[in-house]
Amino acid sequence: GSTYSSKVFRVTFLTLAASLTVPLLGVTVLLDCPIDPQPISLKEPPLLTGVLEPNIKLRKAERLWENQLVGPESIVNIGDVLFTGTADGKIIKIEDGEIQTVARIGHGPCGTREDEPTCGRPLGIRVGPNNTLFVADAYYGLYEVNPGTGETKMLVSTKTPIEGQQLSFVNDLTVTRDGRKIYFTDSSSKWQRRDYLFLIMEGTDDGLLEYDTVTKEVKVLMVGLRFPNGVQLSPAEDFVLVQETTMARIRRYYVSGLMKGGADMFVENMPGLPDNIRLSSSGGYWVAMAAVRPNPGFSLFDFMSEKPWIKRMIFKLLSQETVTKFSPKYSLVVELSETGSYRRSFHDPNGVTVSYVSEAHEHNGYLYLGSFRSPFICRLNLQHV
Questions:
Q1: How far from 29 is each of 26, 32, 101, 146, 201, CA to CA, in Å?
Q2: Residue 298: exposure state from Cβ atoms within 10 A (0-12, 13-18, ≥19)
Q3: 188, 124, 178, 142: CA torsion to nearest 10
Q4: What is the number of H-type helices and E-type strands within the chain?
Q5: From CA 382, how far away is CA 385, in angstroms rounded?
Q6: Residue 102: pLDDT above 80?
Q7: Which neighbouring-strand residues pair with 334?
Q8: Is 308 strand, coil or helix?
């Protein structure tokens, strides 16, 4: 009797499995996929050893202004006054612990995915030579904001195509000391910021641009970058570093000197997906990682990079919000030397204190950590790590 019942069980199980699989496959074939992913070749992630050895140094950071602001992506200082742009479209200042709205580029309502294009999303923010703020708004373009009056002035509008390309996701910017040139990234001419996961998964390419504040001209300097993200001028202003998020690497573009107009690799095969990059007081650079590629361990990102069909399946069946929930909350900030070698790394393996870190901004011995999602800014005392 037992062989008979096991046979029945097997037949029942296989029938059940087939009856579930066939419609699922059918549905998967028929469903539209929002993305058209290309295979991406990545090297095996670097081992997290030596200066990259996991630690819990980021847990020494303190959370500031918790639940009083949301998604403070990028941070700057004018004296001891702090400025940041938030997920509800505002550019805010924090003075003596008090939060005030300085300006907004878009208009309400804000809060949902649908609102984001009209609400606006200030991302990269920098201080110009006259203590005005230069802001990259993902949906509206490049703006100059007077922090005293709140007056905003459009410099580059996303409504104007540049060399035939639409700017769909203006992301970060870096400004020369004289305020003449602004180098900025457009992360995609196809996807908007609210669809950044599609952009990461699809691996489409876009560019690095230059805006001249005197001639008002916009030039495309580099194309073919996969998710160009954070940008930073070197201290000597002879090159710009641009993070290529989907490729886990940093490219270098020369803006002056003998190499002007040339480009090379600054750091490749990083332990995570780089978001923003900022100067460190030692002459090097702080790089915040939007996600980590664990080694030893399993990197889902690397696993899927060569397998576009898996990405298609996932995005046919699941929303971006659902997929985001599966991404590990590992926070990592690395400091690079001026030549691109790793100096030190600060980790928070489960995102206990610091989560979704987008930028590390150094000011007066502290590292201020921006985040594209968290409702706070973290501050780490560099003397204590």
A1: 5, 8, 48, 52, 19
A2: exposed
A3: 60
A4: 6, 24
A5: 6
A6: yes
A7: 287, 345
A8: helix
Distance of CA 147 to the CA centre of its chain: 25
- Residue 99's H or E segment, with its range, is strand 98-104
* Residue in the structure block whose two tokens are 């469903």: 31
Q: How many residues does the chain have?
A: 385
CB 170 within 8 A of CB 160: no
Q: What is the pLDDT of residues 188-247, one digit of tens each?
A: 888 888 888 888 887 777 899 999 999 999 999 999 999 999 999 999 999 999 999 999
The Cα 59–Cα 347 span in angstroms is 8
- CA 223, 228, 231, 233 torsion: positive or negative? negative
Cα separation, 78 vs 126, in Å, equals 10
- Buried-state track 144-169, b at ≥16 Cβ within 10 A, e below 16: bbebeeeebeebbebeeebeeeebbb
Residue pair 199/185 in contact by the 8 Å Cβ criterion: no
Which among 140, 172, 153 is positioned nearest to 73, based on CA atoms?
Answer: 172
Q: Give the span between the Cα atoms of 75 and 116, in whole angstroms.
A: 20
Instruction: Determine contact, residues 295/289, Cβ cutoff 8 Å.
Output: no
Tens-place pLDDT, residues 245-291: 999 999 999 999 999 999 999 999 999 999 999 999 999 999 999 99
* E-state strands within 238-365: 239-244, 249-254, 263-267, 272-279, 285-292, 331-336, 342-348, 357-363
67 against 15, higher pLDDT: 67
Contact yes or no for 327/356 (Cβ under 8 A): no
**Positive or negative CA dihedral for 12, 14, 17, 19?**
negative
The residue type at 121: R
Strand partners, 144: 134, 153
Q: Using an 8 Å Cβ cutoff, are 324 and 316 in contact?
A: no
CATH 2.120.10.30 fits 43-381, yes or no: yes
Domains of the chain, by residue range, sit at 43-381
Find tokens 């924090």 and name the residue: 94
